[in-house]
Amino acid sequence: MQDKEEERSLVNVENKLTKDGFTADFNVVDGRLHTIGDDANTTTYGPEDVTIVDFYRFEGESDPDDMSILYAIEASDGVKGTISTAYGVYADTETDEFLKKVEDLGKNLVKGHK
To answer: Which superkingdom (predicted)?
Structure first.
């Protein structure tokens, strides 16, 4: 039996999301969400094009570098993936601003995808 700490590790959550079809990796550049990978095939999305399906917060015991949030995101064209960001003093303001716009548009679903 896994303990709570182990099952809530970032790696285990990422593995579960991958099994659930969240296979793309995203980042935010110039106010738009980009798929990471082959630059020739990069797709970009505005806040109105994506929905936050779920999120997971991870806090380190004593190291602030360990504090992060992993978001499961689905784009309007069906692409599903994840983006992670630190929070607190190490936060990526561009990513945070993009995700805040998504939330402000009411594009965040009730936590608990299948």
So the answer is: Bacteria
CA distance 28 to 12: 24
Domains of the chain listed by start with CATH number? 4-104 (2.30.29)
Q: How far apart are CA 63 and CA 32, in angstroms?
A: 30
Residues 80 and 25: their CA atoms lie apart, in Å, by 9
Q: By three-state DSSP, how is residue 99 classified?
A: helix
What is the Cα–Cα distance from 66 to 69, expressed in whole angstroms? 10
pLDDT at 5: 47
User: Per the structure block, which two tokens stand in for 6?
Assistant: 């182990």
Contact 66, 54 (CB under 8 A): no
